[in-house]
Amino acid sequence: MALEKNLVHYVKKIEFLKRGVAELQKGTGKKDLSVLDIGCGTGNIAIEVAKLGCRVTGIDVDKASIDYARERNAPRCTFLVGNAQDLKLRETYDVIIASEVLEHLKQPDKLVGFIGEHLHKEGFLFLSMPNGYGPSELSVMPRRLLGRFLKKIGLFETARNFRHRLVKNPMEKARKSFGVDTLNNYGEGALHEHFFTLGGLKRLLTLHGLEVRERQNSFVLLGTFPFYYLICKSWTLQRIDCKIVDYLPAFASSGWAFRVTKHTA
Q: Which positions ≥6 away from 166 have C-beta within 8 Å?
């Protein structure tokens, strides 16, 4: 599965990451940077970074995703099943990637601590996540609250199966709108456990000796109900949405990407 070039917000995020990698390669004079991709899914981001000459280790708790990533036989890529802490990785990395990961964790502090320990002092963390109180998250909040309620009373699976009897080819429809890195076989993403503000994220990073060096706003309406039904079908509308957000304050963006480094006194 190649990079979803028709998904403008996805390409925008990857280009932001690749620019950071290229700058680090130039600054260090080292092309084969060591990269750890945490929550790598099916390996799309890992493979794109490996094309720049980096050595990439991708890890994910979902075995099916890792099996698929391995089948792609991508040069300079190694894929492992497990989470960062359990694998007991000992080396430091020039680049660590955590794309759309922290919001899914019940204890994101543990992962940020791991990253702080394993990030090389001259390297950077590429972090991307939704704005927990941005347009996209707020638009789907009622549905997420309903999902939590249905889980609590034991009717979540029944309701989901009923919904997907009404929706034909959910995986294909989700792929066209969002890509598939973090989607399950129902075409759904994992439920979010945390809803970050920019200030809250910065405080979490600071606790582990990390700080934001650069921020990129992602998009405004592309992931926002009901506008995404229209925008995802048009490359031009996606491009406009992703461009407009560059001129808006952080709170108005539906998501962010960051380049994070170790704190320097």
A: none
